[in-house]
Amino acid sequence: MRFMMLMIPKGYEAAAPGAMPSAEAVAAMMKYNEELQKAGVLLALDGLHPPSMGVRVSFEEGKPKVTDGPFAEAREVIGGYWMIQVKSKEEAVEWAKRCPASANEVIEIRQVQELADFPAEVQQALAGFPEMQSGSRREA
Predict the structure, then answer these.
(1) pTM for the whole thing?
(2) Beta bridge partners of residue 110, listed in sequence order
(3) Disulfide: which of 1, 13, 44, 98 matches 77 by Cβ 3.0-4.6 Å?
């Protein structure tokens, strides 16, 4: 089963362009990332620049509208993520509990939808997209 662990740092929604964590925080996080890698559960990970450097594309009335960050209405934003492959949600939670996060950070864990999760007619619609099928072949 694949899970995405989303890092949600409080205050990041208002971070200035180019804001970076401290060297100490990065070193601690890299040690944690190495543990995930050595355990064979890490599939991917990335940190994200603050929302002040991003854009949002909304589709009001079916027409795309581009809004540059920062986003006044944002209360919680993603600062980064890990994609892991483990046997259960409980195992994903155990990995998240080991993260060297600070008091202002929250990790949200979401299971990735696999092809087998969808009804047959949806699976047929996805048949032309092998990217959507790859996770179902790598079960832990």
Answers:
(1) 0.83
(2) 4
(3) 13
